# Entry
Amino acid sequence: MSDAVSVLLGARVDGPVTVEDAGLCGMIVLRGDLSSPAFKAACTEILGAGVPEALGSTVAGDRAVLWMSTDEVLVLAPFAEASALTASLAEALEGTHHLVADVSDARAVLRLTGGALRETLARLTPADVAPASFPPGMVRRTRLAQSAAAIRMVSDNEAEVYCFRSVARYVMDILANAAQGRPLGLF
Amino acid sequence: MLILTCPCCGVAADETELAPGGEAHLKRFGPGSSEDAFEGYLFLRQNPRGVHFERWRHAYGCGKWFHAARSTTTMEVFGTYSAQVTEPPPEITAKIAAAGKPTA
# Structure
């Protein structure tokens, strides 16, 4: 058996904003009618976190549910739990129109920490990252320079970026580069 | 830069987050239709100078298709609306009329 490793192998760039590989993360894509009772029950009972509002997220311990689209959420969980969670979600949703898949290896997770992280993001994305329009808990799927990414504002000093594994090194490099820019005091 | 508000997720999306889908409200002419009608469906587009109804997809965001009404000359956006309609909703046409623009 081979050991699973994250694509960036724990890379980390320190600075005013620290950009680091968040390591292996279990990710499950869950699609269906988000407002249906069966879907809500599956989320609440199995994950402990309810279905998030549009552009929001819910957190329960080391699990989180991120709103991706009007019919899609992304479940975050510890890497080792992902396959078992996928199976129990599939069982709970059986008979309803749904899709559940373990996509833990599809994406990489990067963590940004530091007070100036909004400026770092603003250098790369067209999304409005001002505190009023991008408060903690919000999830925004957008673009970072030339690649697609989802950004979750965990708190005012911490954000997580989810991007495809194949572009993880590129996203890491542009974030690290943007993090070194002169502070502008915009936010 | 064009900024369209996606009616599906409510995000004010920058043009670079969107994928264009061409002219909106085309009626499909498939097998059994006349050659002229099929040609029109496949190739002939309005390309107006003024108000234009378009399809867009929030490609980098929620991934959903929607419709937008905008002016090709001033880039004024009259609104965005659901993709599941065959003609612009009354509130959009009212807005266009209020701006004094003819809808070709």
